[in-house]
Design a protein that fits this description.
Shape: globular
Structural class: alpha+beta
Number of helices: 3
Oligomer: single chain
Radius of gyration: 15 Å
Strand order of the largest sheet: 2-1-6-5-4-3
CATH topology: Nuclear Transport Factor 2, Chain: A
CATH class: Alpha Beta
Largest sheet: 6 strands, mixed
Number of strands: 6
Strand content: 35-45%
Helix content: 10-25%
Number of domains: 1
């Protein structure tokens, strides 16, 4: 793919991912993913999807209705090494036109660094327990 964007940081790739999610932009969504066939995506309560074809098909089904989601992120954490990064966030997802309908998820996004910058290798989401709505302050041990 010669026109694939370069994401200079893991945060740039993550920002593109959530932008694509909110805008139901399949091409941008798939440009964020690493080219490795071992990429993995797990939606809340869903099975493990592995590889570009399975992940693309899942996002295509989700995006069929067009843009309709609003996603707010909170409580980010990150572990970054020179070649990989693991981010966790709370995703507050609502319908764009009806914020009273919402869900809260815990997401883990793992990025890898390659010749074309940072790419997503794993996106794993699960429902967050009701008491996780507040951001928990970080405590150093």
């Amino acid at each position: 793919m010669p026109d694939r964007p370069i994401y200079p940081t893991p945060q740039d790739a993550e920002t593109a991912f959530y932008h694509a999610l909110e805008h139901a932009d399949l091409e941008t969504m798939m440009s964020v993913w690493a080219e490795d066939e071992e990429i993995v995506c797990v939606f809340p309560g869903g099975i493990r999807l592995t590889g570009h074809a399975a992940i693309r098909a899942a996002w295509q089904r989700i995006f069929q209705r067009g843009p309709g989601l609003k996603v707010r992120l909170s409580a980010p954490t990150a572990i970054v090494t020179p070649l990989s990064a693991a981010h966790t966030v709370l995703q507050h997802v609502s319908l764009r036109n009806d914020e009273s309908t919402h869900a809260q998820h815990v997401a883990t996004n793992v990025f890898v660094r390659g010749a074309l910058g940072w790419r997503l290798a794993l996106h794993h989401v699960s429902l967050a327990p009701p008491d996780s709505a507040q951001d928990v302050p970080k405590v150093l041990h």
